[in-house]
From TrEMBL:
Residues 11-79 form the HTH gntR-type domain. This is HTH gntR-type domain-containing protein. Signal peptide: none annotated. Gene3D superfamilies: Winged helix-like DNA-binding domain superfamily/Winged helix DNA-binding domain (1.10.10.10). The keyword Cytoplasm does not apply. GO terms for molecular function: DNA binding; DNA-binding transcription factor activity. Keywords: DNA-binding, Transcription, Transcription regulation. SUPFAM superfamilies: Winged helix' DNA-binding domain (SSF46785). Residues 127-165 are annotated as: Disordered. It comes from Alicyclobacillus cellulosilyticus. Residues 156-165 have a biased composition (Basic and acidic residues). Pfam families: GntR (PF00392).
Length: 165
């Protein structure tokens, strides 16, 4: 999986990192048990401040989507949702759908868009563990690499597969 950062976006960089990791988990590009790149390494690779990556990882930790510790680093995890999660999620979805409605999207287009997005996700129960994903480890290993090569700025690979994700 590749992470792409858009420095000119209105969305903060830490939020871009967080959102892409969540999407990667939902679409099956990242798996429970996989390691993420160390905070310092990801910051160097993107040329951003350490605290920006730390903030993204800490938000993911608070949401129960990664575990952080000194020995294993950041590892994809999936805690059960906390009490009240469904109500909070529903309100967030309500606002996003209201924005689409106000901007003139038809109900059919809104529903079709939602259905397309949901179809792209992997079932949560079907997420493979790191062991089932084979020896695949998220970047932080030799394949992750530094800032060299032909990789455009703002893009970092999170896995050790040869092809683009």
């Amino acid at each position: 999986m590749l992470l792409y950062l858009q420095p000119d976006s209105d969305k903060p960089l830490y939020q871009q990192i967080r959102d892409q990791i969540v999407t990667g988990l939902a679409t099956g590009q990242l798996f429970v048990g996989e390691s993420l790149p160390p905070i310092r390494q990801l910051a160097v690779d993107f040329g951003i401040h350490y605290h920006t990556v730390h903030k993204a990882y800490d938000q993911l930790r608070q949401e129960g989507l990664i575990r952080l510790n000194r020995r294993t680093g950041a590892v994809i995890w999936c805690d059960p949702p906390p009490p009240g999660f469904a109500a909070q999620w529903r309100e967030q979805v309500r606002v996003l759908l209201a924005e689409a409605w106000v901007k003139g999207m038809s109900p059919d287009d809104i529903l079709a868009t939602c259905a397309d997005i949901v179809r792209s996700f992997q079932p949560v129960g079907g997420l493979r563990s790191g062991a089932e994903a084979g020896s695949k480890q998220a970047a932080g290993n030799a394949a992750h690499g530094g800032r060299g090569g032909s990789r455009p700025p703002g893009r970092v690979r999170l896995d050790d597969e040869g092809g683009e994700s």
